[in-house]
Amino acid sequence: MVINTNISAQVGSRLLSESSSNLSKSLARLSSGSKIINPDDDIAGQAVATRFDAQINRLKAADNNVNNAVSYSQTQDGFLNKVKKALDRMSELAVLSQDITKVDSDRALYQSEFSTLGSYVNNLATKDFNGVSLFDGVTRGVTIDSDAGTFSMSGVNLSATTYTTATSASVATTTGAVAALTNVKNAISLLTTDRATVGANVTRLNYTHDQIGVLSDNLSSANSRIKDVDVAEESTQFARYNILVQAGTAMLAQANSSPQSVLRLLG
Predict the structure, then answer these.
(1) Domain limits for position 112
(2) Per-10-residue mean pLDDT, the chain, length 267
(3) CA torsion through residues 182, 188, 192, 197, sign
(4) Distances, alpha carbon 17 to alpha carbons 14, 27, 229, in Å
């Protein structure tokens, strides 16, 4: 029996320290909801989770861009629907102006409405969305993924010659009304193509939005398996380490008191 070196107390102290450290980690995991408190808990897992976090955030940004592009396209279609109504009325006026029972003074009245509607269509060609022109005909690249890949969203040009020819026509005479009708019909045909283009853009963007959502969900699920703590399992570990700390504390106290038995030998 020795006094200077208490091996039992040293071993008990070391085991108590380990149990206390494990208890602290378990407590941190349960309180934070994450099983990676320090990088050394899972070095590779921490690296993968960091990349997943960044990719998920980039996907959220891309989805935001897609949603804004959808709003842009829907705004386009809202204006184009008004253009359709204006062109419909202009074609109607062109036919009314060809009525043989009308005189030029009557046709002048039709021309007044016709030119007003033409000016309305021309004005819509200058509209913008947050400073970005709606109808300049420019094809714009919309970011659709976390690597900034783009979808080329075809533009619509309300300043195209087909439109301007129709809006600048005149129904003040019978001959002019015949030509105006042809021009307006051509503009209506182009409008149907442009609205189909906008519709196709919206459809494509909606599919992209859904795709981003599915990918984001899958990445979040994979990230959760790496980072998130299993509360049921960790609670069991916490109870285990808690018992070990309490038992270790008691045994360390017992080990520290053992050398006192030497006094009996000396007595």
Answers:
(1) 55-227
(2) 68 81 83 80 86 94 96 96 97 95 93 96 96 95 92 95 96 95 97 96 96 94 86 84 83 72 64
(3) positive
(4) 5, 15, 23
94: Cβ contacts below 8 Å, ≥ 6 apart: 114, 169, 171, 177, 178, 180, 181, 184
Give the per-residue pLDDT at 205: 96
How many structural domains is the chain composed of?
A: 2
DSSP conformational letter for 172 = S
Judge if 219 and 190 occupy the same domain: yes
DSSP lists the bridge partners of residue 141 as: 152
Residue with tokens 């969900």: 217
Query: Do 122 and 248 fall into the same domain?
Result: no
In whole angstroms, what is the distance from residue 151 CA to residue 59 CA? 15
